[in-house]
C-alpha cells in the first residue's frame, strides 16, 4: 500500500489507539484526533514520527470543517477516515433525559456525519478515498441500559450503507466494523460491574474469549486497503462469533 494520509478519531485510547498504531507502523501518516491536547500530544509521541496531532472536540460540529481543511492544507490529501470516537452511558431507559440522549447522538452520530461529509468533499476531488465507521454489537441486538448508545450505533450502520451507495461513483468506499466484546477500559468498566452480564457474554461467544484492540485495527486496515477494493457498504462483525452464538 502506498503511503496514505489517515485520520483516526478517538485515537488516544482503546480501539482508536490500536488502529492509529497499525497505520503508523505500516508507514502511513496518521492524524491522531483527540479532544484532550495533552493526551493527544502524548499519544503522538508514543506512536512516533508518522503520527500528527489533531485536537478537536467532535461534539462541536462547527469546528469540524476547519479541522478537515487543516489536514488537507498540511498533507495535501485525505485518503482514509476512521470514525472511531464514541461515548457511552449506562442508565435505565426511563431515567435518560433528552439532554443525555442528545449528547450521545451528538458525539456518536452527528459528528460522524459531519466529518464524513467534509472528508468526503476532499476525497471526491481526489477521485478516491476510504471511510471506515465503527459500530457495535449494541446495534446487532438489544442491550439493556444503553439505549442512546444503541440508537447511535444502529444509525451508524444505516449511515454506512447510505453513504456507500452515494459515494461509490466518486471512488469512495464506505464500510463499517462492528466490534464484539473487546478488552478495553470501556468494556471492562461495563462488564466488571455486572458479573451476570459478563457471564452471558462468554456463554454466547463461540470462540470463548474477548477480542483484542488489534483485532479491530487489523480489520479496519484491511477494509482501507487495496485488497478490499471491491468491498463497500458492509457491516463486518469482529466478535468471535458472539452475534451468531447460542
TrEMBL record:
SUPFAM superfamilies: NAD(P)-binding Rossmann-fold domains. The keyword Oxidoreductase applies. One of its GO terms (molecular function) is oxidoreductase activity. CDD domains: SDR_c. Pfam families: adh_short_C2. Keywords: Oxidoreductase. PANTHER family: OXIDOREDUCTASE, SHORT-CHAIN DEHYDROGENASE/REDUCTASE FAMILY (AFU_ORTHOLOGUE AFUA_5G02870) (PTHR43639), SHORT-CHAIN DEHYDROGENASE_REDUCTASE FAMILY PROTEIN (PTHR43639:SF1). Belongs to the short-chain dehydrogenases/reductases (SDR) family. This is 2-deoxy-D-gluconate 3-dehydrogenase. It comes from Robiginitalea biformata (strain ATCC BAA-864 / DSM 15991 / KCTC 12146 / HTCC2501).
Amino acid at each position: 500500500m502506498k503511503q496514505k494520509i489517515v485520520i483516526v478519531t478517538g485515537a488516544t485510547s482503546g480501539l482508536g489507539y490500536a488502529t492509529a498504531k497499525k497505520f503508523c507502523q505500516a508507514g502511513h501518516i496518521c492524524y491522531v484526533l483527540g479532544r484532550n491536547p495533552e493526551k493527544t500530544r502524548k499519544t503522538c509521541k508514543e506512536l512516533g514520527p508518522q503520527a500528527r496531532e489533531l485536537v478537536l472536540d467532535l461534539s462541536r460540529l462547527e469546528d469540524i470543517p476547519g479541522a478537515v481543511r487543516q489536514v488537507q492544507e498540511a498533507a495535501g490529501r485525505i485518503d482514509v477516515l476512521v470514525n472511531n470516537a464514541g461515548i457511552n452511558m449506562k442508565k435505565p431507559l426511563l431515567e435518560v433525559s433528552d439532554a443525555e440522549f442528545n449528547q450521545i447522538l451528538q458525539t456518536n452520530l452527528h459528528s460522524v456525519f459531519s466529518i464524513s461529509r467534509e472528508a468526503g468533499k476532499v476525497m471526491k476531488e481526489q477521485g478516491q478515498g476510504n471511510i471506515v465507521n465503527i459500530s457495535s454489537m449494541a446495534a446487532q441486538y438489544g442491550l439493556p441500559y444503553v439505549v442512546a448508545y444503541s440508537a447511535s450505533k444502529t444509525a451508524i450502520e444505516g449511515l454506512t450503507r447510505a453513504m456507500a451507495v452515494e459515494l461509490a461513483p466518486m471512488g469512495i468506499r464506505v464500510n463499517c466494523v462492528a466490534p464484539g466484546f473487546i478488552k478495553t477500559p470501556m468494556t471492562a468498566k461495563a462488564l466488571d460491574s455486572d458479573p451476570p452480564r459478563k457471564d452471558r457474554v462468554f456463554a454466547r461467544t463461540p470462540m470463548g474469549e474477548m477480542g483484542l484492540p488489534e483485532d479491530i485495527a487489523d480489520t479496519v486496515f484491511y477494509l482501507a486497503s487495496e485488497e478490499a477494493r471491491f468491498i463497500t457498504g458492509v457491516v463486518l462483525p469482529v466478535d468471535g462469533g458472539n452475534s451468531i452464538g447460542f
